Amino acid sequence: MAESISGSEHHIANSVSGQHPRLMILGGGPAGLALGHFARKAGLEFQLMEASSRFGGNATTFVENGFRFDSGAHRLHDRDKAMTQEVKALLGDDLLECNIPSQIYHDGNFVDFPLSPLNLIRALGVPASVRALGAFISARMSRRSASQSFEMQAIRAYGRDIADRFLLRYSAKLWGLPCSRLCPSVSGKRLQGLDLRTFLLEAFRGRSAKSAHLDGHFYYPRHGFGMITEGLAASCGRERLRANARVTGMQHDGRRILSLQINGEETVPVERIISTLPLPLMARLLASGLPASIRDDVAGLKFRNVVLVALYLNKPSVTKVGSVYFSDPDFPMTRVYEPRNRSAAMAPAGQTMLAVEIPCNAADEVWRQDDAELVRLVADKLKVCGWFHEDEVLGGCVKRLPAAYPVLEEGIRERVQRIMDALSRFENLTILGRNGEFRYTHTHDMLRAGHDVVAALVQAQQQT
Asked: Contact 382/311 with Cβ under 8 angstroms?
């Protein structure tokens, strides 16, 4: 389905009629808004449909009791210079440059993330470090396993001891699956940094050598990450954005999608669709035009929910890092971040807050647990870190984020590819975005994809 994902000229050219193609963008998250932003800049006529009452998807900034916090520990990495410039043009001086690495909380110690050799020795002590080194050498010298699971790759990269302590327990908690069932792409950049070259650099150059692999440099908007999606929405033009417009059906002739059903009652004709809707939803909407053989593939696509607990604190600061990761299964959370470390405007003067992520499934008790109980649970668990005292807790609030992450099990790429191949028969459909393509992507990736798809649309239009 490579052509349908990329918005190839062949598929785009077949769908274009007239000077200005009618373009329908489905989904008002970062990917959909990026598409609209670049489509507006290119002078393309389009409309964007969003099922909920707000735009931004899971790149939103909440405001509660004077505190601001994002729907995740979002950051804009400068890995695509052109896309960084797009965001700078949208936000101007409100886009701040940050240098704050992250850490892992382990047995009462804070360990650099990504893993750093000398810091590990200090955190584990010499005897445990020697044992971990032995496991590391043994893993590197052993024959490469035929398994391509995340577990096997983590063990080969770090050895069983370190992999268990810092990666496998954390990943099992994050994804809700044994690591033997996870594909390697869930690792992101976690399988780097701990190697002989890094160890020697740190040994001879000290902390100055850490910046090469500690992921601490990024950009962040002054009033929260939601400023980026708000800027993209403003760039689209509010007249082109429609909220509370849930796609409940699609009419097609087996080759092209002809119209959409909105909210179960309204029919909207279409010429070209770019969908950022969750892939299982798109497959269900077009089920009548797809082979029965992919039903099991569609049913096998799973998402992980997140309960986000904001803990308000009556003190000016708690940590000095970007995020803190918790691999210990005794802690229900996987990640904690302090928004004011990204921007002082995220909290009232003299106060701070911790944003705490608890991954779960919809059937889990924590998803349905009372808000006050969740705030109390988080406060009790985090007090052991020494960050605050009981009398400094002001309260908190809870946000529930459904379908926050696609679950990347082993074999998922093959399953997704079969679904994409089936959907590719609709020549006026392009699929984009994290949940649309069912893969883990970053903000700069979604901006780049939106830019490239729109550029292909314009080129195809010029050729007709």
From this structure: yes
